[in-house]
Amino acid sequence: MLYIFAGFPGKALPPGSRHLHAGGLRHTVEVEHLGLLVEDGFIQYRKEGVFSVTPSGAEQLGAVQMCFSDLCLAAGIDQRWFPDGYAFGNGVSLPKTTALRETMVVDHLTGVSLSQMLGVGRVLDLRRQVERVYRLTEGWNQYEARWRPGTCPQESHVVHLTTLCFRHELPQFAYERLQQLIEAPGTKLHFPELYTEQHFSVSRRWEPTQPDRRDLW
Amino acid sequence: MRGGFGALAYGVAWLGGFAGGDHDLLTGVSANDHHPETHTHAGAVTREGGNTTEATTTSTTAVDLLTASSLTIAAAEPLLFGLNTRSVTNSGFFGLKLNTTVVQEVAGSMADLAAATGGNSGAVLCYIGSRVTNYLRSATRIWSASAAVGVDNYDAFLLAADMPTAQITDVVIRAFIQTSGTAGADELQVYSLAAS
User: Fold this and answer.
1) What is the value of ipTM here, to two decimals?
2) CATH number of the domain that B141 lies in?
């Protein structure tokens, strides 16, 4: 059973804070007895199913059961969001996807781009009004099509997800505990004395170069 | 015609102009841009990354770990990217997928950080040539590690499949770990280079 949550543990914490990375979350599953992770060396969860992968090739073992958190579904991320061939692997993963919206500066009256205006070889009157508009690129169109209609953020953004592959369907308490740890800010660990520095990552301060860019979750 | 150090200095200034952080970063019309014609088409120089947290995995089979999506890089345009990698407790392996094609994984790994006390970290710089007929595996990389390595820079970067000839829209860093460890990657910066 593949569980997919929005964000990652500690996403809302300020820069410099420690948060669990994939190995730390795996440790949490162990010490809090939340379930049995799939960690067989050759098992790979993909969008298309569960595969056994060996150096000589891959064989499909069965279908994959995906469980998306409510926050994922509300944001527009479901099975269709993942491209064909997307690999979830096994165990715990915190994958990250960045999407960049390209912009261009145009004459707001004619729509002619600034580079085209410069290209005609004439002196430009910069008192004319120009504006920045989003450029429709093939890459962006393909990316936007992965989202449920009307849900794709229209500015540059980052999508953080947490995926966990369990052998069995989780009991309610375990699912809610994981949901809290991953999606609810400020959730405390039950046994902090059982963790070491190797279970944590540190959030860094991001100096944005693009004011319209934001993190999703 | 530019050559030698002049070309190098010009190239650094050219990239520097785009990395400088002004708001015209992606439009090819920044104030520092001395050569606007090379940047005016879509994706001439695209910068991704610089986020506040890493992507990590404990998976022992490959995961699509770090993705730069929504790119538009034509087949004729070379592609350059760099990223940071690390592994904790055990060996971490990093591969490459372009769009939906896994071009490199496992054997001849793009980066192979061996197990090391206190973890192992490094960087990868990868150059993907233009994807043109008969040159669909023209890619190379250099990489580093803070401790032991599984393969070194002298080992060939063997691509397992031809690179796609369609526009590249997704650059995906794949990763897996050798039993009971954590592999991490971050700061993926993707640049497509103007070909004309």
Assistant:
1) 0.89
2) 2.60.120
Partners of residue B28 in chain A, C-beta under 8 Å: 115
| pLDDT confidence bin for B178, thresholds 50/70/90 | confident
Q: Are A34 and A177 in contact, with CB atoms under 8 Å apart? A: yes
Same domain, B28 and B18: yes
Convert the pLDDT of each residue in B14-70 to its tens digit: 333 333 332 222 222 222 222 222 233 444 555 654 556 789 999 999 999 999 998
B180 and B96 share one domain: yes
Q: Is residue B36 located within the same domain as residue B99? A: no
Query: How far is the C-alpha of B174 from the C-alpha of B50, rounded, in Å?
Result: 18
- At residue A166, φ and ψ (nearest 5 deg) are -110, 155
Q: What is the DSSP letter of A123?
A: -
Number of domains in chain B: 2
* B142 shares a domain with B54: yes
Q: Which residues of A touch B25 (CB under 8 A)?
A: 209-210
With an 8 Å Cβ cutoff, are A201 and B55 in contact?
no
- Spatial contact of B95 and B172, defined as CB atoms under 8 Å apart: no
Query: Which pLDDT band holds residue A117 (cuts at 50, 70, 90)?
Result: confident
Q: State whether B107 and B13 are in the same domain.
A: no
Task: Please answer yes or no on whether B60 and A89 come within 8 Å at the CB atom.
Answer: yes
Q: How far is A87 from chain B (nearest CA, A)?
A: 5
Which of A76 and A110 is assigned the larger pLDDT? A76
Task: Tell me the shortest Cα–Cα distance from B3 to chain A, in angstroms.
Answer: 26
Is B21's CB within 8 Å of A209's CB?
yes
CB contact under 8 A, A87 and B174: yes
Q: Does A98 touch chain B (CB under 8 A)?
A: yes
How many beta-carbon contacts under 8 Å exist across A and B? 205
Q: Are residues B27 and B107 in the same domain?
A: no
- The answer to whether residues B22 and B90 belong to one domain is no
Stated pTM of the model: 0.83
Token pair in block for residue A61:
């073992």
One domain for residues B26 and B80: no
Maximum CA extent, chain B:
54
Domain that holds residue B64: 42-192
For B47, B109, B180, the CA distances from A42, given in Å and listed in that order, are: 35, 17, 14
Q: Do B56 and A23 touch (CB under 8 A)?
A: yes
